[in-house]
């Protein structure tokens, strides 16, 4: 997306430097909302801001900082849904962020059951709202994942999240299989 504004690599990298700042702020807000403590929220914010690996990765054109921001954004929206008068709408936005995270890294698929179960558990006293919220979450995720699969299928002929067919997994387990 930054390339729509400027094709300069330095511009894109400068945008990447903003992602950890926003991520740390969101983490601070999440912890403050859950615990009520301003000071406790500084711990996850400091982990993001003072992590030397992240500082190094900010200088490379990689997706780590964007992925972290989108996942933490999804978590923040899920927390906001706790106080929302319309939790299904908030969790639909959360689902859009999780779907975007899957576009960035396929590993985010593992977060789907975590968020769905969390939604059902937290909103269980209001069962109808819990099921509607989980449905809205899944519908938003499904829409973005379907768009990803269709787009990739149109380009490559393989209608799946990945073309590898398990070869990446095989390369990791081949030595002890």
Distance between the termini: 41 Å
| Oligomeric state as shown | single chain
* SSE-based structural type: mainly alpha
Q: What share of residues are in beta strands?
A: under 5%
- Average pLDDT score: 86
Helix content: over 70%
Counted by DSSP, the helix tally is 9
Low-confidence stretches: none
- Helix and strand element order: HHHHHHHHH
Radius of gyration: 18 Å
What does this structure look like?
This protein has 177 residues and is an all-alpha fold. The chain is built from 9 helices and no strands. Helix 2 runs parallel beside helix 5. The chain is globular. The mean pLDDT is 86.
Architecture blueprint of SSEs:
Layout: H1 2-5, H2 9-35, H3 42-49, H4 52-57, H5 64-80, H6 87-104, H7 111-122, H8 127-156, H9 167-173
Helix pairs in contact: 2-3, 2-5, 5-6, 6-8, 7-8
Kindly summarize this structure in a few lines.
The chain is mainly alpha-helical and 177 residues long.
What attributes does this structure have?
globular; 177 residues; mainly alpha
């Amino acid at each position: 997306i930054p390339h729509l504004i400027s094709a300069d690599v330095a511009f894109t990298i400068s945008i990447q430097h903003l992602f950890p700042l926003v991520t740390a702020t969101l983490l601070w807000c999440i912890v403050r909302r859950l615990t009520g403590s301003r000071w406790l929220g500084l711990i996850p914010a400091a982990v993001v801001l003072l992590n030397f690996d992240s500082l190094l990765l900010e200088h490379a054109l990689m997706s780590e900082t964007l992925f972290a921001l989108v996942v933490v954004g999804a978590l923040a929206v899920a927390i906001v849904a706790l106080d929302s008068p319309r939790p299904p709408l908030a969790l639909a936005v959360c689902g859009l962020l999780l779907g975007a995270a899957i576009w960035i890294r396929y590993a985010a698929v593992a977060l789907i059951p975590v968020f769905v179960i969390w939604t059902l558990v937290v909103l269980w006293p209001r069962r109808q709202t819990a099921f509607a919220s989980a449905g809205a979450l899944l519908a938003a995720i499904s829409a973005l994942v379907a768009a990803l699969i269709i787009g990739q299928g149109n380009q490559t002929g393989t209608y799946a999240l990945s073309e590898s067919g398990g070869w990446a997994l095989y390369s990791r387990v081949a030595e002890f299989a």
